[in-house]
Every structure is written in C-alpha cells, then in structure tokens.
Amino acid sequence: MIMILYWSLPMILFILGLFCFVSNRKHLLSMLLSLEFIVLILFFMLFIYLNMLNYENYFSMMFLTFSVCEGALGLSILVSMIRTHGNDYFQSFSIM
Questions:
Q1: Could you tell me which residues come within 8 angstroms of residue 78 by beta carbon, excluding any fewer than 6 positions away?
Q2: Quick one: pLDDT at residue 96?
Q3: Rounded distance, CA 17 to CA 11, Å?
Q4: Cα atoms in the 13 Å half-sphere on the side-chain side of 18
C-alpha cells in the first residue's frame, strides 16, 4: 500500500507533463518548460527508487548534471531562434 502511494503522485505528474508537452506546440518556450517539468519528475522518481533500495544518490547527481546541460542547450536554441526569426513560434520556423 505504501509503494502505491509513493509512485502514484509522480506517475500522475509525469502523465500531466507529457500531456502538456504534446498539447503546447505553439511556442518553443512552453515546450521547453514542460520538458523541464518532465525531467524534474523523472529526477523525483529516480530519487524515490534509489532511496527505497538504499543505494547511493551519486547517479542522481549525474542525472541532474545532464538535465542542466539539456536546459542550457534548449535555452541556447531558443535564443538563436529568437535572434534569427524574431519570435519562438513554430509556424514561422521552417526546417527546409
């Protein structure tokens, strides 16, 4: 019963984060925010899992390091897109 309580809230939040990521496809900034929310929920789930098994939290620090790198890369893409196109709409951005 306790295990269900530990995993139910992070799973609900993860599904809500995925829903926000799929539904907000107009602006790049809103997609980046929903991706960061998903990464934080994954970190929370990893932290719960490692604490239940009495493992060290060294891997969670590596996960946080890579998530910070992912956030910096996303912000750099956002800044370059705003400098070249003037906004962060996906409709004005053409891949070709």
A1: 28, 29, 32, 88
A2: 46
A3: 10
A4: 6
Interval 21-78: pLDDT, tens: 888 778 888 888 999 999 999 999 988 888 888 888 888 889 999 999 999 999 998 8
Containing structural domain, residue 30? 1-93
In this prediction the pTM is 0.83
Q: Identify any residues that bridge with 27 across adjacent strands, giving them in sequence order.
A: 89
Contact 50, 57 (CB under 8 A): yes
Count structural domains, the chain.
Answer: 1
The CATH code of the domain that includes 32 is 1.10.287.3510
Judge whether 60 and 47 are in contact, CB under 8 Å.
yes
CA atoms within 13 A on the CB side of 9: 6
Q: What integer pLDDT is reported at residue 84 of this predicted model? A: 84
